Amino acid sequence: MAKEIRLNAFHMNTPSHSWAGLWQHPRDRSLDYTTPGYWADLARTAERGLFDGVFLADVFGTYDVYGGSRDAAIATGAQSPSNDPFMVVPFMAQATSHIGFGITATLTYEQPYQFARRFSTLDHLTGGRIGWNIVTGYLKSAATGMGQSTVRSHDERYDAGDDFMAAVYKLWEGSWEPGAVLRDKALGRFTDPARVHTVSHHGPYYQVEAAHLSEPSPQRTPVLYQAGSSGRGRDFAARHAECVFLNGQTKAIVRDAVAAIRRRAVAFGRRAEDIVIFLGATVVIAPTAAEARDLAADYAAHIDPIGQLALVSGWSGIDFAKYRLDEAIRHEKSNSIQSFVENITTKAAAPITPRDLIGFNGIGARGPFVVGDPAAVADELLSWVDETGVDGFNLARLVVPESLNALVDLLVPELQNRGRFKTAYGEGPLRRKLFPGDGPHLPERHAGAAFRHR
Amino acid sequence: MAKEIRLNAFHMNTPSHSWAGLWQHPRDRSLDYTTPGYWADLARTAERGLFDGVFLADVFGTYDVYGGSRDAAIATGAQSPSNDPFMVVPFMAQATSHIGFGITATLTYEQPYQFARRFSTLDHLTGGRIGWNIVTGYLKSAATGMGQSTVRSHDERYDAGDDFMAAVYKLWEGSWEPGAVLRDKALGRFTDPARVHTVSHHGPYYQVEAAHLSEPSPQRTPVLYQAGSSGRGRDFAARHAECVFLNGQTKAIVRDAVAAIRRRAVAFGRRAEDIVIFLGATVVIAPTAAEARDLAADYAAHIDPIGQLALVSGWSGIDFAKYRLDEAIRHEKSNSIQSFVENITTKAAAPITPRDLIGFNGIGARGPFVVGDPAAVADELLSWVDETGVDGFNLARLVVPESLNALVDLLVPELQNRGRFKTAYGEGPLRRKLFPGDGPHLPERHAGAAFRHR
């Protein structure tokens, strides 16, 4: 039997996310992103569609590569302003009961002790529905905002990441043994102090000498998401990630990436299926193909080209303001998202121009762009799953709320009719829903399990 | 006309707060502190009573002075576990419309750039109901948890605090000019980049070189709470605080402290009434005096003496496990809460023993302990207001939820009948409610206003 696919709503606490300028669409209500109702509605809709999660991106900094300034990004609302992703999760959790929440957080600017507490608290309050998308941060504007003069190099960011992970595993998995929490009113004992251990972590980047502040939450370690797709990034993902967020525009590229990640995971003693892989995709769906085409054209007309170039300049580290719109992009050295730079330069089949980066059909989509009626969209998405080995999709935000409503009302029933999408949520915390048969905690074969108290 | 008093519910994201062990009371439901419903109920009850705010304490670390170990604190659930206070605020905000939220956050372990964004996000999502209780942190366990080998000295903590405040004022008040946000769909402009300014802060402790990530929230700077009551702490409060949280066990001590803070505020160019002063108090109220006495005795019997000594050892830095219960406490040097140490040693009228620190009637209450029927409690509380100049009270958590219910059902109507408590919330964000006539932003005479773009 062909496997059921998984879907996340890909969103961000900002006026426009993957597609700059769509907040300008007359029917879009993204300007309400600062209000609780916006987030409650988003989560309710995604849960109505039995989505696995709301995956919250974050950009800690402002894109300032295009034209050498942040002006394009902030003028067009291209991931600017960028508000804290943590704070919207409780509003979404309160409005729902099952859906998970993947929160992007940059470990570079955190301390494990404080960070682990924040996630434990949220995992408690949501009944174990929290995931963490591990990112290391590459924006110069974030570094200078945080009082640092330089951004760590690409590989060093991952070295620091391994160090950070060891520290948080110790806090989440090792500090409070099973059975440490008594909560015994008659005995007058909340905790058995003999089962709470000081974490002693003295790594090259991070130091912790303290017990974890929070009692164990339903999942202990949140479900771990990761999106690195460079060589070093894939090693990191294969070791730590339980969900991987992949971008890629051809099935060949995606198939290779999926195989490489699963192969490396197995080399680390894990199972190939221990990693759920989500491919980024943009889907415009309508009852008929003609309506879908019209809708896609309408949306495309509202993409802000300068805003979009501000985004892709930020992701790549290449200043596209220096290029004519139809000029071939040369390979440039960059300290930014390496996979994206490779995709638009050395790995591209034909020369890419800035014009290719602006619209839905161009490489700026970073993944499949699918337009059609429910049957055609389902056909296309399932072909990606079946031919590449991905498990599902992170579906990009378009016009809010109508695009997500359309996915829930049209795509989900079509997939269900084909037996390729669940008809009810599984039981338990997010990890158990994603990995039926596993417990709510990291499996023994995951790197984090080694940090448990023996 | 005598002034209306203000009330906050004083709480913490932990099993027991000011009074260790009350989670063990048969009717107490503090064990639910990890669930959203606990917080929603708390906020709804406090809002039903027209409380000004829920004031959330935080202890970033574990008390480990008593007996030289953390065991007493964690065994008895004395402010351990200690979960993140931020994450419960959205659950409380969602359940209410008017009440404010004061969040204790230790600036020592934060960076202004990231911190300012978190508060701006929360101020947006709550419609301007956020306050920040500025603390500098004094626990060694927090420092070592954060990878630091030492705690800054008392005075240096405040120097760093002044530096931190300058940086966040620049972000909140100066980075985005009024009029910077256009949100103009027709024009395709979210922001006028000419009105967004890079914050350039290069202080002795904190550096920021970036624009603020968030557009201005309803209040911009959250309402600033502060609790320092040493000399240096009072200077800090007089300069920055809009609300001061004071402890003190005699009217003479409190009156002097109030006068000193207001005098210093005036010296900084502010008005005496620019600071709303809340006195910490523990109140047991019941329909009759006899019932209140019985209730207080019942509660007192559930205070965990070892847990309570773990708390006061932590606050004072003095290990009371080294004393017999009836042995006079000597003055010891400490890097902890200086005012508390002074109150139990040099400033005490008679020698204080550990036994005095355990119960409601002792100095462990750190402020008035009031037991009685509604008329008697109102008399006593109003006498403190009228004789010391405080504006109201932070009312300590006792047995949840019945103690707060009793305050709302019995104390509030009594105060209203006397014309000493509001009968409806004022309009607008928290700052406007606390300072009627002022705007939602810091007044021009506040230190933070100097950081606005001119």
Automatic annotation (TrEMBL), chains A, B:
<feature type="binding site">
    <location>
        <position position="58"/>
    </location>
    <ligand>
        <name>FMN</name>
    </ligand>
</feature>
<dbReference type="GO" id="GO:0016705">
    <property type="term" value="F:oxidoreductase activity, acting on paired donors, with incorporation or reduction of molecular oxygen"/>
</dbReference>
<dbReference type="InterPro" id="IPR051260">
    <property type="entry name" value="Diverse_substr_monoxygenases"/>
</dbReference>
<feature type="binding site">
    <location>
        <position position="230"/>
    </location>
    <ligand>
        <name>FMN</name>
    </ligand>
</feature>
<dbReference type="GO" id="GO:0004497">
    <property type="term" value="F:monooxygenase activity"/>
</dbReference>
<feature type="binding site">
    <location>
        <position position="158"/>
    </location>
    <ligand>
        <name>FMN</name>
    </ligand>
</feature>
<keyword id="KW-0503">Monooxygenase</keyword>
<dbReference type="InterPro" id="IPR036661">
    <property type="entry name" value="Luciferase-like_sf"/>
</dbReference>
<feature type="binding site">
    <location>
        <position position="229"/>
    </location>
    <ligand>
        <name>FMN</name>
    </ligand>
</feature>
<keyword id="KW-0288">FMN</keyword>
<dbReference type="InterPro" id="IPR011251">
    <property type="entry name" value="Luciferase-like_dom"/>
</dbReference>
<feature type="region of interest" description="Disordered">
    <location>
        <begin position="434"/>
        <end position="454"/>
    </location>
</feature>
<feature type="domain" description="Luciferase-like">
    <location>
        <begin position="26"/>
        <end position="391"/>
    </location>
</feature>
<feature type="binding site">
    <location>
        <position position="154"/>
    </location>
    <ligand>
        <name>FMN</name>
    </ligand>
</feature>
<comment type="similarity">
    <text>Belongs to the NtaA/SnaA/DszA monooxygenase family.</text>
</comment>
<dbReference type="Pfam" id="PF00296">
    <property type="entry name" value="Bac_luciferase"/>
</dbReference>
<protein>
    <submittedName>
        <fullName>N5,N10-methylene tetrahydromethanopterin reductase</fullName>
    </submittedName>
</protein>
<dbReference type="InterPro" id="IPR016215">
    <property type="entry name" value="NTA_MOA"/>
</dbReference>
<feature type="binding site">
    <location>
        <position position="104"/>
    </location>
    <ligand>
        <name>FMN</name>
    </ligand>
</feature>
<keyword id="KW-0560">Oxidoreductase</keyword>
<keyword id="KW-0285">Flavoprotein</keyword>
